[in-house]
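In response to reviewer comment 3 from the previous cycle, which asked for concrete evidence that the modeling workflow produces usable outputs, we include below a single protein chain processed end to end. The sequence was submitted unchanged, and the resulting structure tokens are shown without manual editing.
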Amino acid sequence: MKMLVSAAAAALCLSIPAAAQENGFETTDLGGGVFMIANDQAGNVGVLAHEGGVLMIDTQMAPFAEDLAEAVRTASGGRDPELVVNTHLHGDHVLGNEYFAGLGAVILAHETVPERLANPSRSELLGSTPEPLSGAFLPVETVAGDTSLEDRGFAAEIRHAPDAHTDGDLWIVFPDADVIHTGDLLFSGRYPFIDLDNGGTVQGYIDALEAIADSAGPETRVIPGHGPLSTREDLLASRDMLIEARTRVQALIDEGRDLEAIQAEAPLADLDADWSWRFIDADRMVFTLYRDITGETR
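The workflow returned the following structure tokens.
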């Protein structure tokens, strides 16, 4: 079940400077040159800005790109990003790529991402096959696993979570600022979208939450893919909820129930008020868990 924020976490949040609003974006200065930029319409953006350059995590979508670029400039002292890291393939994190590439940014992602963007699969959440992307939308540099950006002048470490939200998830650690950007490996306070059609798995997602939590300390600020600025406790709360939800669905499958019967049983009813949101409700979460457990497609 959902965990309450501890007194320590509450004090941590109170210590963060007030967020600035501009053009529909809220920018929070996390110290050490790291900023969280969010509009709750697409994936949360991270920025690392110092005298050597500007690193940006995710690009949201084309309709927001111009305003997002202005928010990045405000945070970075008027500069555009030299390097963009895409945390994964989903459109609400990459569809601004072309705009920022046009400003001179190099786009980097996991090695699975360019192929999946160029030849997309149908996604459960979208309900249809996205349009193929090409040209400046596509990352031009890739990584196969964990790597450091220190040789590019950024105090940032890229880590790969295999077969989690997708098969190409990256999360980024800013050690000097004690900040982690999770991409969609954390939907803070919300049921997660686990994209089984693009290499995601429930166990991989749980493993990723645990790995990120292991890398976080009691004062680490966590930028989730969606949701508010978070803490290590929020990572563990999401992990515990997902394990509990899977256990309940597994028990009903073991009794011989099919998907329709399990959804009618409403096994997540007591979790729904805390974790349901506009994209993932209890029925959709059960559907994902059922597919993951049984291997059944639609």
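The chain is about 35% helix and 20% strand. We consider this sufficient to address the reviewer's concern, and the full set will be provided in the supplementary archive.
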